[in-house]
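The instructor's notes for this session suggest beginning with a concrete chain rather than abstract definitions. Hand out the sequence below and ask the class to guess, before any prediction is shown, which regions might be ordered.
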Amino acid sequence: MPEAHPPSLKRRNSDDGSISPPPVKRKQQSTTTSKAVANFFTPVSKKAPEKISWRVVKDSLLIGKYDDPKDGSASGPTSSKTKVAAFDFDSTLIKTASGNRFGRDATDWQWWHGSIPQKLRAMSKDGYIIAIISNQAGISLKPNPKSIKSDQKRLADFKTKVSAVFTQLDLPVSIYAATTRDEYRKPRPGMWREFLEDQDLEIDDRLDLSESIFVGDAGGRPAEGGSVKDFSCSDRDFAANVGLKYHTPEEFFLGESPKPFIRDFDPSEHTSTATAPLDSNPLVFAKTNDLDIVMFCGSPGAGKSSFYWKHLQELGYERVNQDLLKTRDKCIKAATRFLEQGVPVVIDNTNAEPEIRAVWIQLARKFDIPIRCVHFTASAKLCEHNDAVRSLNVSSMNPEKRTMLPKVAFTSFTSRYKEPALTEGFEDIVKVDFIFEGTPDQKDIWCKYWI
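After discussion, reveal the predicted structure:
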């Protein structure tokens, strides 16, 4: 009986003679150039210095600069003013090669469209300064012992990806990457201001805004046909804030016609109140009792504290605020102390639900005095906008120097909110719609897009 042999591991010839590996193992097209491969194997001592330099501003803004934009490399026509072509990064200049929403690593990228490198080189040659303005929430520039390894990897991957993109472009270009929810995050104008300062364009009217553009994918476009809804309108709002002409990538690189867009929040819808003269508002609150409690009800950012300073402080009311005192028990003790001294008191908290409001109604009953409610009606989006304006403009619009609230502060209030009713025990309820009050300069700040 012949000896049995194990099956041969040698690949058998296919019927069609092909010896290609299965499709899942076939090599995907790479964005790595032969120049980059050669550079990898070059000894460190013989490598040319890196053309990209990095710096960090306020542990928040990451700036990368490829060569010096003033090195005279642009050989096209010049003018007395400077033109700028600014772009978002992800889903505008590049996209993932894997098809995933977020890149897996530093090599998972490809050009959003094959014409982009040639287009940017032509614009640079035509005298444009090329800049990238990008939100990068996945990067952390602040040391965190609990996540330092993953933070370092994400930062290193991002720098490696940017370096590869810039190397392929090989033209003077800078990137500004906002990593936190602060003054630099689009649509806020912080990154643009930093760019203008770096380029000496913030003075003497050196920037040609009429010829400058910004291109980004966050344009507020709704889902249409097979297209997906834009995740936000932040790129369009950013361009409006800084005065640049806005284009989507499809419009700018592919020549498509503009499509309709929707903003979740538009300050211009509130300009009818924002433009009212400061002395045109009717008296919305009058003191009717020698001693009482006035309880505010409204979202963070609805204008409660400003209302107190403008209308109730001058009437002799003392203010009790949990943001300052930190706990409700301390607020109750402070209010009790004022009332014992015969001083009327304002409860300047959100007081979203009946159960919390009942605490103050019970305190009024203890002293056998009336309790009145001032109900602030501003929507959550309007309040979030107000909070951003306040916290990011400390010198001109934030006398108490409050820091920005997390988004959950507004969503939490909305989920807990129940409209106050007279049946709860209030003497009356005064409704207050938001009315912007400030100088023309403050109004100009308020009317920009901040969220």
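Then share the key points. The CA atoms of residues 229 and 383 lie 25 Å apart. The first helix runs from residue 34 to 40.
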